[in-house]
Hints:
Muramoyl-pentapeptide Carboxypeptidase, domain 2
Amino acid sequence: MEKGFVFLDEQVRGIRWDAKYATWDNFTGKPVDGYEVNRIVVTHAAALALQEARNHAAALGYGLLLWDGYRPKRAVDCFLRWSMQHEDGLTKERYYPHIERAEMLTKGYVALQSSHSRGSAIDLTLYRLDTGALVPMGGGFDFMDERSHHGAQMISAEEARNRGCLRSIMENSGFAAYSFEWWHYVLKNEPYPNRYFDFPVL
């Protein structure tokens, strides 16, 4: 692994994860290039901030569930190739029912260069520590729709409060929100703001 990066589960206890792009359960419908194991990698700085976020969440009765952290550049290239392929309809209804594949780029859901490839961006949600149940957020991970935006009007008051709770936890731990995706946060003082890495998650 690249120097300055860590497996999150070795650094922060009590965090759950499901690295979606290492599985068949993602918008491409298959494991993505560069994800060889179902684990989350982040920079050491991001791991320290996530430890703080875990503590803030626990004080409110919540835990953190992560879906993605560091993303190899080859995975981003895989997304771009996939977005230009013929529509087969296999994942459209679940992930992007109101847009076309190519619009993922123009609408800000897939980037030519991803902040994830710098190692300090994460995708996550909250779960209840007492039951293990995911907290309702008004839409799932990678749902490419205005419903996923911060400030979306078509979600319930409870779901909006839950998004606000996650945002407060993350911003108080040194992360910045992304307006189009309620689950996506980037460390404000990231250690590699101008580098895009491509080592695989092994």
